[in-house]
Amino acid sequence: MPGLSDKERPVFRGLHWHRHDNYSFFIPIDWHQFSWDDGREGVVYGPDADDDQTVFAAQLVDLGFDITAEDEGAIAEGFFGAIEALPGVEIEEREQEVLYGPRIHLQARYCFDDGGQRHKRWVRGLYRHNFQVLLTAQGATPEKFHYWLPMFFEAMLTAGVHLTKPQEADLETGNLSGLPQ
Fold first, then answer.
1. Could you say which DSSP state residue 164 is in?
2. Rounded Cα–Cα distance for residues 101 and 79 (Å)
3. At the top level of CATH, which class does the domain 50-161 belong to?
4. Cα dihedral sign for 11, 16, 20, 24?
5. In this structure, how many other beta carbons lie within 10 angstroms of the beta carbon of residue 159?
């Protein structure tokens, strides 16, 4: 990261492969695992057990219908509309695309206000079959977001969505999709 010396960058000590039936990603091994306070399905990880605002989170939602490429507009409208409704939101970037399968991929990076605090967040919405996987990297402050960005990148960019839980043998063969090869 520009402007940070090696002493000021987070240190990777190793990675843990978090595997779920419908998604997987790599997360630093020394991060703490939390549960969602409101009982939603998914997982939350953070570098500091005392900071529940600097986190990487995954949430699974069964949409109750199978996704088609024609759903992109309505899904994008809901996804980006929810972000635009946040207090004091400033959207830095947004992206949407339909991939083979069909899979719909949406993402945005933005800052917003919550309880008198300015947060920075990167959220990706991955839609496949009948489910949505929301991946969220958030810093309690924009500065914390930028500090932890290399580790957020690792989790975000290794994330996959699939129909069956990947196995350890899949890691050895490089098949992280959970799909038969």
1. S
2. 20
3. alpha beta
4. positive
5. 20
CA distances from 39 to 11, 134, 140, 153, 156 (A): 31, 15, 22, 26, 23
CB neighbour list of residue 85: distance below 8 Å, 6 or more residues apart: none
DSSP 165: -
Say how far apart CA 103 and CA 123 lie, in whole Å.
16
7-34 as b/e, with b when 16 or more CB fall inside 10 Å?
Answer: eeeeeeeebeebbbebbbbbbbeebeee
pLDDT of the chain, 181 residues: tens digit per residue? 455 555 678 888 999 999 998 999 999 999 999 888 888 899 999 999 999 999 999 999 999 999 888 899 999 999 999 999 999 999 999 999 887 667 899 999 999 999 999 999 999 999 988 999 999 999 999 999 999 999 999 999 999 888 777 766 565 555 555 444 3
Distance CA 134, CA 115 (A): 23
End-to-end CA distance of the chain: 37
For the chain, give every domain's residue range: 50-161
Q: How many CB atoms lie within 10 A of CB 46?
A: 21
Predicted TM-score (pTM) of this structure: 0.86
